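Input:
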Amino acid sequence: MSKIAFIGEQPSILGFKAIGADIFPAADGNEAVNMLENMFKEDYKIIYITENIAGQITDYLKGIDRLWPIITIIPGFKGSKGLGKARLRNYIIKATGTDMIS
Amino acid sequence: MLADVSLTRMNLMKMKKRYAIALRGHKLLKDKQDELMRKFMELLEEIKSYRQEVENSLEKVHKQFFWAQGVMSKEFLEEAIMVPQVSLNLTTSQEQVFNIQTPKLDFHIEGDIYSYGFLFTSQQLDLALDGYKNIFPKLLHLSEIEKRAELLASEIEQTRRRVNALEYILIPELKQTIKYISMRLAELELSNQIRLMKIKDIVRKH
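Output:
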């Protein structure tokens, strides 16, 4: 088992299988949440989620407060929708109390 | 003002000591907050450009992979990559930034990523896989620094709350308490003295 997992629509993550990561194709947010819950019990260190799926479970992702695994949002094959940057903005709001980039 | 303080000199001394410590703690925490903030801002700049870079190159690789999917049949493609002969070795450790444990990642890929025969696969697939391999270290680094930013953000939030609690609640309260105690003590002393003078007067009249 690899310590790195990808969750998302199949075309976006299939390529990562070739370099040895585990891939978990998910059709929608609910499925992805179930997968994540299972992964927390295993020894995954990094989980990448494509924007399409992550967009459906933003609230769930916000609630996760743990050091491992690291969850990172990557753009899917449709290109970036800016979700990763939105997450960054949340950190800024958390740290400063105000929205500094708008 | 702090409730339940008895008006004694002992208490006054205690309060003064607490006040001094609170001031020192406030200064230290404020310094920590400033430094955390500086680090956080630096990190933000790095992440912003890095994420952009990663997203752009990932898009390119996705396109290449799509192309490969276009020119090959789906079965062959999946067959070609479903059983990779590479192993990803990821070692994780923790690095301390201030009092925060931040994750540190280190990895290397072992084996050949082209785990398929060249007969039924296209050149585009080779290119795409090469792209995925090249982008992977960048993805890992992105995860690492984004996690660090998240941890820093929550630490800053915590420190900010502490600084504010000290600055706007504890320190003013202590100040007021000290003032209150010392005023009441002075008052008591004054009334005592006047009582003595009065008694002396009465004694003298007799």
